[in-house]
Amino acid sequence: MADYIKFVDVTKCDGCRACMVACKNWNDLPAEPEGFLGSYQSHENLTANTWNVITFNEQETSNGGFEWLFRHQSCLHCVQAACEKACPEDAISHTKFGSVVINADKCVGCGYCVENCTFDVVKLATYKDKNGKEYRKAQKCTLCTDRLEEGLQPACVTACHTDCLIYDEKEKVLSEANKRLAKIKDRFPNANVYNPQGIEGTTTVYLLADKPSVYGLPEDPKIPLSQVVWKDYAQPLGKAMFGVTTMAVVGAVIANAVKKDKGDHKGGEDNHE
């Protein structure tokens, strides 16, 4: 299969939220109505049951007017995914489509992925078993991997009426993105293609109208070295030598260390999400 990516051209978004509705419908996610937030934005942030939010950012123009900068906020599906590195149960993995998915059967609700997600995307949902005991599972956008397996496009992409969202071959999309970038530079001098190489790129790539920090995105995110050492070296060796139970305890210690220096490695002037 060709290398495909999801592309988000925020300069074409009109804030209609059709992508949000499509995501809820396809994934059978419950409604989460919120009170007035002081703007047109419907939800303050992503949740365990709201995997896609259109953010509204009011910006003053050079002529004294204003315009809305919208962003389709959802999982970026990092090539080097911090959530995957932080998970002590191997519950998070990459699919052949480049999507980062969570295996609910393996997830124990520890929350390490939530604490370490580069873009503050992963959230914990609370459930009850047949005896009424509560338990937690990590949840987020799956890039509609179940649809991709059937040759379909992600639900959000099919719902977008402005072609703000596209799912197509990577090289083709990036070529068109750079052409589009050149066209909008006069209007948006700080426009850029956001595909951070500090995490080896993402399967969801943005064309932003302004600096990433304006949209709450880290300028140059990176994976903390402690995460790489834990996932790629310490965990496999530890499981072989000490067993899974012991490594869960070790994992807690390392995950807490990762959490402590999380802000120092995400990049960005103010350590945004």
TrEMBL record:
PROSITE patterns: 4FE4S_FER_2. The keyword Iron-sulfur applies. Residues 4-34, 66-97, 98-127 form the 4Fe-4S ferredoxin-type domain. Keywords: 4Fe-4S, Iron, Iron-sulfur, Metal-binding, Repeat. InterPro entries: 4Fe4S_Fe-S-bd, FDH_Electron_Transfer_Unit, Formate_DH_Fe-S_su. It comes from the Bacteria. It is found in: Cell envelope. The keyword Zinc does not apply. This is 4Fe-4S dicluster domain-containing protein. It comes from Cytobacillus spartinae.
